[in-house]
Design goal:
mainly alpha; 4 helices; elongated
């Protein structure tokens, strides 16, 4: 009888611990869903801002690939929406005659060798 009571008490304690862990998981799941929704809304808002801009706006990652591009860019560049995502920016959009120079500036920016480059102009005489 004593063994049964000890077993029962142990199981009750284990059940209480499991209930606490489930409650923590439920809180984490709620927080995760909230965070995902907030990120989705912020992404949509950012894309809306980009799409109302009347200029070419592109985001290029450190692997030189286009990760974000606004509608105006597609319109001006003559590509279908979504067609440029994931493509190498230099190989796709930068003229070959200046590609190496522009890539050099990009690499210096990415490595921190230069702090910023608001624009880059190369004049040919």
């Amino acid at each position: 009888m004593e063994n049964q009571k000890k077993t029962k008490d142990r199981l009750i304690k284990e059940l209480a611990v499991l209930r606490q862990q489930i409650a923590k998981l439920e809180v984490l799941e709620t927080e995760r869903k909230y965070t995902e929704e907030r990120i989705r809304r912020e992404k949509e808002q950012t894309e809306n801002y980009l799409n109302i801009a009347g200029v070419i706006l592109e985001v290029v990652n450190n692997e030189e690939n286009i990760t974000l591009i606004n509608k105006k860019s597609y319109e001006i560049l003559g590509y279908k929406e979504g067609e440029l995502i994931g493509r190498n920016w230099f190989d796709t959009l930068v003229p070959q005659r200046i590609r190496d120079k522009i890539r050099d500036v990009f690499c210096k920016l990415m490595t921190g060798d230069i702090e910023s480059a608001e624009y880059y102009i190369r004049i040919h005489y």
